[in-house]
């Protein structure tokens, strides 16, 4: 009862309740899971935006400016800032906290830092869940900031509807490292710190890269390139426009359904993996149908591999054990 009350308060837009559910889920508490179960049907409205790129590119500054712009457009905004290094008191986060101070009294902005603990491609273990909570809470946009330097750190692209890759001038090698594979995961490239020397060179290098790469994998959206000076809030309206345009493109083209499917696959598989590791496998051999198969193995009628394949196919259908 208490939990459904908690979920109701989140849906009603109660900030401390949203924070509480996120914390409960993070701590792996059953109340967190049941609140999430109640909240999930009320989610699905928010535009989830990934902002990723190397440390120091100005992602947090950019996100702060974007939040301001989205607020001017009347949107309710959630921010999940995933930090690889530190628990919630870390240095980078402290700086972010100062930057985000201006939203401290704005009930239309919800900001949460999460530690990634190294795993999960730059995401925190419960980033997906936190995004669901903020979605059900009524955020029109949920911005997920992650540090992403390589392909494996771009897991945010599986979570977001739209992913922006932030880069900066003078990082020629990094720009070269933005291999086609990385570019395919993003819908927009943001060249931030466009006030610095070398911005024009960097833009030229990025344009070459855009045109040399294969056409974007999914649909007919063309990877966009934007210049921003986040520290002076320049180019931020254009950024918000492109984000809106991509969301509209997803809806219009029907791609949104594909993106949603990709977004849900991750947590589903994570859960299956977690449960298998949690001991489902240990009790498996005691199930009657498995015991029968094992008996056949004992009688030398089946070898163990064939028995395992047979069981997988019985449970999961043909093709489960190719
Ligand atoms: N010159 C310049 N500096 C910027 C710009 N945007 C951010 N910065 C500065 O770059 C540093 C790193 O910014 P931060 O947002 O923390 O980067 P993050 O690590 O990618 O989140 C800070 O000192 C910012 O003030 C910009 O457009 N131009
Ligand atoms: Mg940051």
Architecture blueprint of SSEs:
Blueprint: H1 2-11, H2 15-26, H3 30-39, E1 47-53, H4 59-72, E2 77-83, H5 91-100, E3 109-115, H6 127-137, E4 141-147, H7 156-159, E5 162-167, H8 172-177, H9 180-185, E6 188-191, H10 199-212, E7 224-227, H11 236-253, H12 255-284, H13 288-298, H14 304-316
Parallel strand pairs: 1-4, 1-5, 2-3, 2-4, 5-6, 6-7
This protein binds guanosine-5'-diphosphate and magnesium ion.
Magnesium ion binds at residues 59-60, 92, 96, 145.
How far do the termini sit from each other? Answer: 46 Å
The beta-strand count equals 7
Strand fraction equals 5-15%
Biggest beta sheet attributes: 7 strands, parallel
Return the average pLDDT rounded to an integer: 86
List the helices and strands in order: HHHEHEHEHEHEHHEHEHHHH
Number of helices: 14
Q: Share of helix among residues?
A: 40-55%
The distinct ligands, each listed once, are: guanosine-5'-diphosphate, magnesium ion
Radius of gyration: 23 Å
Neighbour order of strands in the largest sheet: 3-2-4-1-5-6-7
Shape: globular
Unreliably modeled segments? none
Q: What structural class is derived from the secondary structure elements? A: alpha/beta
């Amino acid at each position: 009862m208490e939990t459904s009350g908690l979920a109701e308060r989140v849906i009603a837009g109660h900030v401390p309740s949203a924070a509480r559910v996120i914390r409960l889920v993070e701590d792996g508490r059953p109340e967190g899971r049941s609140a999430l179960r109640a909240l999930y049907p009320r989610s699905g409205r928010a535009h989830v935006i990934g902002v990723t790129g190397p440390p120091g590119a100005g992602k947090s500054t950019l996100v702060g400016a974007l939040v301001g712009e989205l607020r001017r457009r009347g949107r309710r905004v959630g921010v999940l800032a995933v930090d690889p290094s530190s628990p919630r008191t870390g240095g980078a986060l402290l700086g972010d906290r100062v930057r985000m101070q201006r939203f401290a009294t704005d009930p239309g902005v919800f900001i949460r830092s999460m530690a990634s603990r190294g795993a999960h491609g730059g995401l925190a273990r419960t980033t997906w869940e936190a995004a669901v909570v903020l979605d059900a809470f009524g955020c029109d946009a949920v911005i997920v900031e992650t540090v992403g330097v390589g392909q494996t750190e771009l897991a945010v692209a599986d979570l977001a509807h739209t992913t922006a890759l932030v880069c900066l001038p003078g990082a020629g090698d990094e720009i070269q490292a933005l291999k086609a594979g990385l570019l395919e995961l993003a819908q927009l490239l943001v060249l931030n710190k466009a006030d610095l020397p070398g911005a024009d060179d960097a833009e030229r290098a990025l344009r070459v890269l855009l045109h040399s790469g294969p056409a974007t994998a999914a649909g007919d959206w063309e990877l966009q390139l934007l210049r921003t000076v986040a520290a002076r809030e320049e180019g931020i309206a254009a950024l918000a426009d492109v984000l809106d345009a991509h969301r509209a493109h997803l809806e219009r083209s029907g791609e949104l359904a594909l993106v949603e499917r990709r977004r849900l696959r991750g947590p589903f598989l994570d859960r299956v993996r977690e449960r298998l590791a949690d001991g489902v496998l240990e009790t498996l051999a005691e199930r009657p149908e498995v015991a029968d198969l094992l008996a056949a193995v004992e009688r030398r009628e089946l070898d163990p591999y064939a028995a395992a394949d047979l069981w997988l196919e019985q449970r999961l259908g043909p093709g489960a054990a190719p």
